[in-house]
Design a protein that fits this description.
It contains 17 helices and 44 strands. A hairpin with a 5-residue loop joins strand 27 and strand 28. Helices cover 22% and strands 27% of the residues. It starts with a strand and ends with a strand. The radius of gyration is 29 Å and the shape is globular. The strands form 10 sheets. Strands 21, 22, 26, 27, 28, 29, 32, 33 and 34 form a 9-stranded mixed beta sheet that branches. Strands 2, 4, 5, 7, 8 and 9 form a 6-stranded mixed beta sheet that branches. The chain has a 6-stranded antiparallel beta sheet with strand order 14-13-17-11-20-23. The longest helix has 23 residues. It is α+β, with helices and mostly antiparallel strands.
């Protein structure tokens, strides 16, 4: 008997240490379900819902005995399901899921914040790691033990020499001024009768290390600190061991650690009770009690960060200069594990890089950021580790207090030859569940999909980052562009909710959304000398666009509700800017504003399209006074339109009508200002035409003219794309939806620069920031791991394979299956594990029926798997729609335009 699967609490598969009193539960209905009629949840704490008549399988609030700090329950669910014959049957019981709450109240904490007392703090990038240690005696081994820990900095926790858990970079990246995550661990098995030692290693991390493009340091404070509490239960009673002044501080082998600069380790220094093999380390001293809040502590919203994959080198090359270049064959985010450290006292340096220079050694030159405070100068690229061996057997270097973006590592100063088993590449990211796939008959397109996916994996450590080497920053614009693709391929719900919590915390009082979250908070970002760059169209709009995409993916309207106030404040800022300010050039030309100008957002700083292949070099200071109204007003319209839909979902129907009316006025204003009498966009660019069509900025009678203008611009560019950052995800869908499917495929398959396949053909393993990230001469430019341009894979899912949600659907309740093949493709397949279960679509053309010049003369066979509670509208070329429900369905259709009705060959479960 089948049973529900994929039990979740607050979208998490691991619900340890939650700080939510009424967690929401969800599950995937059993295989073979047509429709769920009812469910029953039971839990070990006595909660029993009884039979509940409902088709819902998500967002079910816990309603059992009141939960408080440390409460724990195991829950399971069974469902009553309608089968294909219309008969109701009861499922088996699911496997249980454990949910445990953390510490909810400030009074739960008896531990104190403590630190190393390092009053003479070295410069950023030169600061060492410290160990904070407590030894204690237990009369008996505990029956239950929990460790709760967090830090101002990055910490690792050890009990009796064994590392606690497998999470990395704890407590993680958040806006520390408002939220500091606490990790909760079951450590029962690590403690013993007699003498025990708990030890934490503490380094700068996000709290005070250098960070981002500008390498700012001390973002949240100037001193690292630890807060840890060990709670033990046994037959003899309970015991709490918390951080306080009785803990001891010692030096560690980490002589410096910084997220940007790298990590240095000298194994000759040791704090584990043995005399140092070389050098001198200060002796133990009492920890210093530090001031610190406990009211900002929070449990997890996102899965933890882990080493999720290990890579073996594809080659190791000894260069004439003695360096050994390790190539992992894949650009990743993380670090290496090195087991060959050389002779005692040898200094081994590791330079991490995405590319090789002309000398075949690793190069970091293209990753050096501008020094905005010294025009024309550049900052160091960082990404350098060093290790000195003590010669002890089994010594391993794994720098877990820094991270790097790299494919290559230049190993310098190691006289012995490295072998593949000596070095391992560790992919470090938030441990997101994969829920989507794509494959087709063209291997270059498969590679394109792979590199987009790898680019996301390398930018999903704690928060959605722009790049994993030069900045590691949670740029809002990047995530709003890529989140539709990411949410299809991975479960990013908790990951994004965590990030959105920081976006809300970092919002300015006037409604401006900061460009980057987490950040130091509105007081700092608004006063920064680059603060004027915040509040840009396409970046600030992420506070509306990202929650909306998560709602579409999950059907969970609470995501909209928890961000709604921030959305309204952002839209209020935009509307006020549009209604009260005019661009000086427009005001000078026409002192009296036209009525439609009240709906033009043409003032303030905007990044604009950003990085168009034929555009000018970006100039942030010039953009401060530029007129980017054609872009900003487009986003004003789009965000207002989304807000009208959002308030409808939330049941605020009066507001929906008002917002729909405003959205219509903005659309009319854009068309009045930026569309000429001939029906063409007056500031002609591919990006502006794409936005006009994608955001509904022109009426139905004008779409054909703008489409023709877009096609003309593309062909005038030699059938190359000309979009930069913002418009690229919409380019191919806009063409396909407006009668230019063939042109869309021509752009997709273009393999000369600028194009996606030029990246593939030049050996990219992740998506580049620039279209010429590796130029024709093989020289690297800027970041080689920026996922934004990889958003094109959504076209592969929705158009090539043909799976998309129906308009008005959320949580994949209603879907449309409509393959739109092109470019001679003979087959494609995709899958998505949605809230109701697995959706699969696979189509193939009879062998020999596809060619670049003539597409699918014979026939197309399509097989679709539809999960419980889902209806699918199947649209095949030239044929009437067929609506099907749950089950496995196969269709055969002629595709040459004849009127033969598609034949439903079988529909089985």
């Amino acid at each position: 008997m089948t049973a529900p699967t994929r039990l979740r609490a607050e979208h998490l598969s691991e619900a340890m240490g939650l700080t939510i009193r009424e967690p929401r539960l969800s599950w995937t209905p059993p295989a073979g379900t047509v429709r769920q009629a009812a469910y029953r949840i039971t839990a070990g704490n006595g909660w029993d819902t009884g039979r509940v008549e409902s088709a819902e399988s998500g967002g079910i609030p816990y309603s059992g005995p009141a939960l408080d700090s440390r409460s724990r329950f195991e829950w399971r669910v069974r469902t009553w399901n309608i089968d294909p014959a219309g008969t109701e049957t009861a499922s088996g019981w699911s496997e249980p899921m454990s949910v445990e709450l953390g510490l909810l109240h400030a009074s739960d904490w008896t531990a104190q914040w403590i630190g190393p007392g390092d009053e003479d703090v070295p410069a950023p990038g030169e600061r060492p790691g410290w160990a904070l240690t407590k030894t204690f005696t237990l009369q008996t081994a505990p029956e239950q033990a929990r460790a709760y820990a967090t830090a101002h900095g990055i910490y690792e926790l050890f009990i009796n020499g064994r590392r606690v858990g497998d999470q990395q970079l704890t407590p993680g990246s958040t806006s520390y001024n408002t939220t500091l995550q606490v990790q909760a661990h079951d450590v029962t098995g690590l403690l013993r009768e007699g003498v025990n030692t708990i030890r934490a290693v503490l380094t700068d991390g996000w709290y005070r290390g250098s960070f981002g493009y500008t390498r700012d340091a001390d973002t949240y404070g100037t001193h690292t600190a630890l807060l840890a509490q060990l709670e033990l239960e046994s037959g003899a009673g309970s015991q709490v061991i918390g951080t306080d002044a009785t803990w001891q501080v010692t030096a560690t082998e980490i002589t410096s650690a910084d997220l940007m600069a790298g990590q240095r380790v000298d194994f000759r220094s040791d704090d584990a009770g043995r005399a140092p093999a070389g050098g001198t380390a200060p002796g133990p001293r009492p920890a210093v009690v530090r001031p610190g809040r406990v009211d900002a502590l929070a449990g997890p919203l996102a899965p933890p960060t882990r080493v999720t994959r290990e890579l073996t080198p594809v080659s190791i090359t000894r260069l004439p200069n003695g360096n050994q270049v390790v190539d992992f064959g894949q650009n990743i985010h993380g670090w290496i594990r090195l087991t060959q450290l050389g002779a005692p006292g040898d200094i081994v340096t590791l330079e991490y890089a995405e590319a090789l220079g002309a000398d075949s050694d690793a190069t970091r030159d293209h990753l050096r950021p501008h020094n905005f405070r010294s025009p024309g100068a550049y900052l160091d690229a960082g990404q350098v580790d060093t290790v000195i061996s003590s010669g002890a057997p089994g010594e391993v270097f794994e720098p877990r207090h820094t991270t790097h973006g790299f494919q290559y590592v230049s190993v310098q100063g190691l006289r012995r030859d490295l072998h593949p088993e000596d070095v391992t590449g560790c992919l470090v990211r938030t441990d997101l569940e994969r829920i989507g796939t794509f494959r087709c008959s063209d291997e270059r397109l498969n590679t394109l999909h792979d590199i987009a996916e790898w680019s996301f994996l390398g930018n999903s450590c704690e928060v959605p980052t722009d790049c994993p080497q030069r900045e590691k920053a949670g740029w809002t614009g990047d995530w709003q562009l890529f989140v539709p693709a990411a949410a299809y391929l991975y479960d990013v719900t908790g990951f994004s909710r965590k990030w959105l919590r920081d976006v809300r915390a970092d919002q300015w009082q006037n409604g401006v959304i900061a460009n980057i979250s987490p950040s130091a908070g509105p007081a700092v970002t608004s006063a920064d000398f680059m603060g004027f760059t915040n509040g840009s169209a396409g970046w600030g709009d992420a506070i509306v666009m990202v929650p909306w995409e998560l709602y579409l993916a999950t059907g969970d309207a609470s995501i909209l509700a928890e961000n709604f106030d921030a959305m309204k404040r952002w839209l209020g800022f935009v509307r006020t800017s549009a209604e009260t300010r005019r661009h000086p050039a427009r005001a000078a030309a026409h002192p009296t504003p036209a009525p439609h100008e009240q709906c033009l957002w043409d003032t303030g700083f905007h990044f604009g399209e950003w990085m168009e292949p034929d555009g000018p070099e970006p100039d942030l200071f010039a953009a401060r006074s530029a007129d980017n109204g054609i872009v900003a007003t487009a986003y004003y319209r789009h965000t207002t339109d989304l807000m009208a839909r959002i308030v409808s979902v939330l049941g605020r129907h009066d507001e929906a009508a008002e917002l729909a009316e405003l959205s219509g006025r903005i659309r009319d204003a854009w068309e009045t200002e930026y569309l000429g009498p001939d029906g063409r966009v007056t500031q002609p660019s591919q990006a502006n035409c794409v936005r006009a069509l994608a955001f509904g900025l022109v009426g139905p009678d004008r779409r054909a003219g703008v489409t023709a203008q877009l096609a003309e611009l593309i062909r005038d560019a030699g059938t190359h794309l000309g979009t930069g950052f913002l418009a690229t995800p919409y380019l191919l869908p806009v063409l396909a939806d407006n009668g230019e499917l063939d042109l869309a495929y021509q752009l997709l398959m273009q393999d000369t620069e600028p194009s996606w396949l030029a990246m593939v053909d030049r050996g990219a393993t992740t998506v580049w920031e620039l279209w010429n990230g590796i130029d024709a001469a093989g020289t690297a430019h800027q970041s080689l791991n920026h996922y934004s341009k990889g958003a094109v894979v959504t076209f592969l899912h929705r158009y090539t394979a043909g799976l998309r949600q129906a308009p008005g659907s959320a949580g994949w309740e209603r879907i449309i299956i409509e393959p739109r093949p092109g470019a001679g493709l003979a087959s494609a397949s995709t899958s998505h594990l949605g809230p109701r279960g697995l959706i699969q679509v696979e189509w193939a053309v009879a062998e020999g029926a596809a060619s670049p010049g003539k597409q699918h003369d014979a026939g197309l066979t399509l097989t679709a798997t539809i999960p419980a509670g889902t209806t699918a509208e199947v649209l095949l070329p030239g044929e009437p729609a067929v609506v099907v429900g749950p089950g496995i369905h196969t269709f055969v259709a002629a595709t040459g335009g004849d009127a033969a009705k598609p034949e439903l060959m079988r529909s089985t479960l």
